[in-house]
Amino acid sequence: MTLTFAPDTTPRKAAAAADAAMVASQGEGPSERQQEVLDAVLKLMVAEGDGFSVAAVARAASCSKETLYKWFGDRDGLLTATVRWQASKVRMPKLPQDRLTRQSLEAALTGFAASWLTVITGDLSIALNRAAVSHAGSGKSRLGEIVLTNGPFAMKRRIEPLLETGRAAGLLDFEDVTDAFRSFFGLVVADTQIRLLLGEDSHPDQVEINMISAQAVTKFLRLYGRG
Predict the structure, then answer these.
(1) Which of 7, 72, 148, 181 is deepest in the core (most CB within 10 A)?
(2) Are 195 and 154 in contact (CB under 8 A)?
(3) Residue 35: which of 75, 73, 82, 90 has the closest Cα?
């Protein structure tokens, strides 16, 4: 959800705490009640940035602090789960049941791009990224590391199977899937997110998002498409 890439070094401690707590409490993915808690965290971040306390989350979500610690481990675990919950709203591209064609590849890439843009240009994602950027390099918060790992790096892991399938089908030509993803990322996100982070009030509507996504995929296929 932020815009620069670094080596994919996962913040393992917070991620492991969040994973262990979430798996122990409900298996895969947050329960409906946990989703309510994570949505409360996102709303607090829109209103206050990331300076909220666990007690504030408990009050906002009508939940005890003990339950929050049981579910998410600690504050970093809660932040990790919140970022993952927001990132999960980006719909995964569905691989066709039959052989991948250029048309189905283009449709899958465009759908993923539109879903991604819809999420990262929303108020909740903008609030998350502003909070992450505000503490970057200060040592006061690990939110930037958490957002980077569960934002762009997570999107890379989601789209890689589709890119690799496109290459295996002879529709895409690239040597390094990371380079291909970086190009896709740059074409889809461009400067849209930066402008919003810097305070631009005009959020793209769904028509504009669909247009940006289609144009980005067309350019991507010109760069990497075969045939």
Answers:
(1) 72
(2) no
(3) 82
